[in-house]
């Protein structure tokens, strides 16, 4: 009797776990489909086709990997931002990254890399509090006063950033940096499925806010 009851409860438990897992997977896939589809018209990979904006927002990444090798996500984002700047498609660049500890400073690394690509220091503004994509996008608006700007990252990342920006009514387009080969980016792309799902939850359910805003910063020297 006890064994039959235990077997029944076990089957019932695993059935519920299976149903819950299937529904969760479905919601994750639908969230990703929604973000990709709704942002498609704002995504550009050809510098000749993208419209110009005063400001480009480069989303942060670490300069090197844990093994000390160059992070291709970082390298290609810098190259994309410099390409837009040299083509006259953006006039100023906000580099937004994580600086949660002294020895880890994405924004400064991006600034230095852009200068090596020929972008003047006077045309670069550092955002040290871009802890998450949502933070970077909202701070570009709330702190740096930009409601119309160009987002620069890899396509899969740009989709989420544009989705967040459009939720807040911002007029953005995105320039897709070169993709990283799949054998280097598999884990990142898998995590992105969860990140897109989380973005929907953050915006529509819990109304997530940036970790830190602070005082407004004006970007001088911009002429429409």
Question: How would you summarize this macromolecular structure in one to three sentences?
Answer:
This protein has about 220 residues and is an alpha/beta fold. The chain has helices at about 1-40, 70-85, 105-115, 135-140, 155-165, 180-205, and strands at about 45, 55-60, 90-95, 125, 150-155, 170-175.
Secondary structure: elements and pairs:
Elements: H1 2-39, E1 43-44, E2 53-59, H2 72-86, E3 90-96, H3 106-116, E4 124-127, H4 133-142, E5 148-154, H5 155-167, E6 171-177, H6 182-204
Parallel strand pairs: 1-6, 2-3, 2-5, 3-4, 5-6
Helix pairs in contact: 1-5, 1-6, 4-5, 5-6
N-end to C-end Cα span: 80 Å
Gyration radius (Cα, Å) is 20 Å
Name given to the CATH architecture: 3-Layer(aba) Sandwich
Tell me the number of helical segments per DSSP (H or I, 4 or more residues long). Answer: 6
Lateral arrangement of strands in the main beta sheet: 1-6-5-2-3-4
Output mean pLDDT: 91
CATH H level, superfamily name:
HUPs
Topology order in helix (H) and strand (E) letters: HEEHEHEHEHEH
CATH topology: Rossmann fold
- Count of beta strands: 6
Give a verbal description of the structure.
- The model has no long low-confidence stretch (mean pLDDT 91).
- The chain is α/β, with parallel strands linked by helices.
- The chain starts with a helix and ends in a 20-residue tail after the last helix.
- The radius of gyration is 20 Å and the shape is elongated.
- 49% of the residues lie in helices and 15% in strands.
- The relative contact order is 0.17.
- Strands 1-6-5-2-3-4 form a six-stranded parallel β-sheet.
- Helix 3 (106-116) links the parallel strand 3 and strand 4.
- It has a single domain (36-204), classed as Rossmann fold (3-Layer(aba) Sandwich), CATH 3.40.50.
